[in-house]
Amino acid sequence: MMKSALIVIGILAVIVVGAHYADKATRLPHTSNSVSAARMDSPNSGKPEPDLTLKDLDGKNLSLAQLKGKVVLVNFWATWCEPCQYEIPELIEMQQKYGAKGFTVLGVAMDEEGRSVVAPFVETKRFDVGGGKSQMNFPIVIGNDDAAEKFGGLLGYPTSVLIDRNGKQIKRVTGPINADEFSKIVESQL
């Protein structure tokens, strides 16, 4: 019994260390905050947004094409993901600050259980934003593996892809975003 537990712990340690180094190997280096630098550090930089249509929490279709003309931050997340929950207040703030100027966050929930888990989370969960409690204030759609593949696959959650008004991908980050960096890029696109 003890030997089996040690083997399991050893295997888990190898997986964790391997995932850590895989993440570090695929993370993009931090350059400057300029848009041109952001484009250079993204493997999908300049590629057009994929043809993507998903169901929102009301069961209606929402496509990236419908958001053309806006700067869109596509954010792949899950309700169980702690780093995702850590960055949601920053996404709420960005939506509040830039939403009226032609920006939107598009939350792509990747929970396997789909709407049955995501809808109650979005309806009831409140986040600390600016000294008060706020709920998610941007569109949420239910994602799937096909959606992730259209963006080149995901190495983890959250993963965010910034798309300019013309539908071109300009920045991609695996892990929580740097809100200051993204705000500068968003402002330069508005």
Folded structure, characterized:
The chain contains 6 helices and 9 strands. It is of the alpha/beta class and 190 residues long. It has 2 domains: 30 residues; 158 residues, Glutaredoxin (3-Layer(aba) Sandwich). Helix 3 packs parallel to helix 6. 27% of the residues are buried. About 12% of the residues have low confidence.
User: How many domain regions?
Assistant: 2
Give the low-pLDDT segments. Answer: 20-42
CATH topology of the largest domain: Glutaredoxin
Number of helices: 6
Numbering strands along the chain, what is their spatial order in the largest sheet?
7-4-3-8-9
- The structure class reads alpha/beta
Whole-angstrom Rg: 18 Å
What overall form do the CA principal axes indicate? Answer: globular
Q: Report the order of strands and helices.
A: HHEEEHEHEEEHEEH
Beta strand % = 15-25%
Q: According to CATH, what is the class of the largest domain?
A: Alpha Beta
Largest sheet: 5 strands, mixed
Instruction: State mean pLDDT (0 to 100 scale).
Output: 80
In the CATH hierarchy, the architecture of the largest domain is: 3-Layer(aba) Sandwich
Measured between the Cα atoms of the first and last residue, the distance is 61 Å
- Going by CATH, the homologous superfamily of the largest domain would be Glutaredoxin
Helix fraction by DSSP (H/I, runs of at least 4):
25-40%
